Amino acid sequence: MLEKYGKSEFQQMLRKFSRLKPTGSVLEYAEQFNVAMHSLLAHHSSWDPLFFTTQFLDGLQSDIKVAVMLHRPHNLDTVVALAELQ
Questions:
Q1: What is the predicted pLDDT for the residue at 44?
Q2: Which end of the chain has fewer surrounding CB within 10 Å, N or C?
Q3: What is the pLDDT of residue 3?
Q4: Cα 11 to Cα 30: distance, rounded to the nearest angstrom
C-alpha cells in the first residue's frame, strides 16, 4: 500500500513542479522552485542538476530568460542570481 500511495504522491509532485511558473518576484519563484525541487529529490536523488537548471530557466519570463541565457549559466544558483539582477 505504501508503494502505491508513494507513487501517486510522486506523480502529484511532478505535475505541480512542471506547472510551476513565476507569479511574483524572481526570489519568490526561486523559493517555490526550491521547495518543489527538494520534494522531488527526496523521492529520487538521481536527478541531473542540469534538469533543474533548465526547468527554472524555462519558467522565467521571456525577457528575463533571454538576458540570463546570454551569460550561459551552468548551475541553478547562477541562474537564480542572474535572474534576480534582471
A1: 81
A2: N
A3: 56
A4: 21
